[in-house]
What does this fold into?
Amino acid sequence: MGPLLKMTLAAGLIVTTTQAFAHGDVAPQPVDTAALPDLEEEWPEENPFREAGGGVYVEAIEIGASGYNQNCARCHGLEVVSGGLAPDLRYLSADWEGDEWYVERFVNGYSQNGVTKMPAFGELLGGKAAWAIRSYVETRPDDGALDEFADRLGEIRDDLKTKAEAVADGTEMSDFEDEITALREELDGIAGQVPSGSGAKLTDSPASRAVAMLDGSPDSLTKATETLTVGLSAAE
Ligand code: HEC
It folds into this structure.
């Protein structure tokens, strides 16, 4: 290949990546909110999924996690831990004041001297996606919130892993029933003690996720083990 052709190709590549990047920066990614109940009002004063509580809140957190990762994480940070590009959203209080400010920014975005620093998401993603993302953001654990439980969570993880391996080797799941029930209760207790940054009553942590997974099936042992492993390495 001659030098001229090489240069042309390289230039072409640069143009393409820049375009892709600029495009990726402004195009909001749709969020699938079909599993969530419809809202009476799109922009109520407070997070309607927090108010609904229970399974609706948990579902909203899960959907919000993926909506957040696709639309917000590149500026506000993975797991909502800001790297400094944009404010840390974990500390917006989980009440009407925090919600009001959240909606203001979500709907209008933010521009400074004609430069868009944050795109407006309101019309493109809508209220259901906004509140699902809000639910995820407000239930993040506070900085270091898992530290005091990390050793015990590591032990529980190892215990579940050993049980998963034993079951794979032919041990009956029912042999472990009582032990798993006890571990599940302990995890639930830990989950209830992990503080959120926003003051929300529920904190979405590896402990709470593992509790939700442990449904008594052999598969759930492996899944809970993985969830704890990933959560503990992220918390380090
Ligand atoms: C291109 C970068 C970018 C993206 C993408 C982005 N934001 Fe922002 N966001 C910012 C910046 C910069 C600010 C600070 C604006 C200011 O000074 O008030 C901000 C501010 C905010 C605030 C106000 C926070 C505070 O403490 O004042 C909220 C809430 C917010 N963003 C939510 C979101 C959500 C939710 C998403 C995803 C749907 C998102 N942002 C996507 C850059 C971004």
